[in-house]
C-alpha cells in the first residue's frame, strides 16, 4: 500500500482546534442542573407555548430558556426508570428520566408515539405532541427544522417519510453525528418492516400505532443507540458508528482462508444463498458473497446489532428470521439462518437466502460447514483470536511507542476499523467519555461539510491530539503531552508501517465470492 508521510511543516501549519470536547472532564461531564430530560421538556414545552420559530435557514434555533435547579441530586442509575411496559407514571418529574444523557423520540407524522429510549411513551404524550406541533409549524412556513442548541444540549430532528425522529443529547456527539445515529435508528426500523410496508401502512391510516408492528423490536433500537458512554460503560462500537466502519477479528490470513474455504465448498451450489457472514463479539470473521453483491458497513452493523441483542440466538438452536438490509434493498426481506457454531466456539454464522422456504436446506449447509471447521481445527483458531483481540497493543506491530495512548485507524476503501485497547485512564467511564468526545470532535472536523480538514494537531496540557486523513486511510491518535512534534512524526510513520506489515491480519482486503 502506498503511504503518505507527515512533514514537520505540515504539523506546524495544521489547525490547532479548540473544541467543545476539550473542556476539562469535570466541566464536560458533570450533570447539568436540570439534566437532558429537564432541558428537553422545558425547551419543547416553552417553544410549543411561545411558538418559537427557528431562523429562516432552519438549521438552528437557540433559546435562552431558564432551567430550574433539580431537587434530586441522585445518580441516574440509583433509581428505577419507567419503561414502556411499566404502569403509567409521570416521567417528566422523574429525576432519573431527567438526568439521562441521551434521549431518542420517534413518532409518526400525525404525532402518534412510536418509541422513547427512556420512559413510557404514553406518559410522554405532551413531549411527542410538542415535537409534532413544532415540526408542522416550521413546515407550514416552507422550512424544515434541523437542530436546536440549548446550553450544552443538542436537539436534532430527522424527518423521514411517515416518521419524525428526534435525538436529545449531552454527550460529545455533534449535530451531524446525532443525525447519523437517527438515520441508523430509522434503518433499524426499516430492517424490521421494509420501507414498502411502512409506507403502505401509513398511506392507509395516518394515525396507525406503529408499536403494534414493532413489538419486540424495541430492544434492537435500544441496543443500537446505547453503544456509547451514555450507558456508563466502555464500548468500541461507538467508534465504528462514528467512522461508518466495522471491526474485523484479527487473525492470520491463512487461518481466515481456511474458514472461507469451508464456507465456499458447502455453499457454492446453493442458488438462493446471497451472503454467508460469520461474526464473533461484534467483529467480522469473514463474509462470502454472491458475485456482484455486497453488504454496506452500516447494514453489517445492523446484523451485528441483531445478533448481540438477541439472547434467544445464544441457546445454540437454529433460528430463522426475515431481515431487510436497507442499503441492499429497502423494500424486501432476506431470510437469515442464524446459529452459533458450537458451545465451544462463540462464533455466529448467518446464511442469507432470497427464499423464505430455505430453512432446512440452509440447516444442512450449516451442519456441513461446522463439520469442516471442526476437522480443520478452525474452532480453536477462532477462540484464540478472540482472546487476543481483547488487547490490541502496539507490541503486536513490533513497535515501541510509549507516548501513544490510543489510536483509531480506518482504511477508507474497505471501511474497517482498528481500535487499540483502552489503557488508563480510558478504561474508566470518565476517561472513556473524554476519549469519545475527543474523537467525536476530531472526526467532525475532518468530515465537516463546511471546512473539512486533512490534518489536525492539537497540543493540550494533558495530551496531544492528531487527526490525519489521506486518500488511503484515516488516523486518529492521542499522545502523551510531553511528546515533541518531531517525535510524533516518527511515531506516526512507525505506526503506519507496523499496520501495513500486518494488514492482512487486521483487515479483510476483499470479500470472496461463491
From TrEMBL:
Region annotation (Disordered) ranges: 1-34, 51-93
Q: Which GO terms describe its cellular component?
A: Mon1-Ccz1 complex
Spans of biased composition, class Basic and acidic residues? 69-81
**FUZ/MON1/HPS1 first Longin domain location:** 102-224
Ranges for domain FUZ/MON1/HPS1 second Longin come to 271-370
| GO BP term, example | protein targeting to vacuole
Q: Which InterPro entries match?
A: FUZ/MON1/HPS1_longin_1, FUZ/MON1/HPS1_longin_2, FUZ/MON1/HPS1_longin_3, Mon1
Source domain of life: Eukaryota
Function summary = Plays an important role in membrane trafficking through the secretory apparatus.
**Similarity comment text for this entry:** Belongs to the MON1/SAND family.
Q: What is this protein called?
A: Vacuolar fusion protein MON1 homolog
Q: Which organism is it from?
A: Glossina austeni (Savannah tsetse fly)
**What taxonomic classification does the UniProt entry list for its organism?**
Eukaryota, Metazoa, Ecdysozoa, Arthropoda, Hexapoda
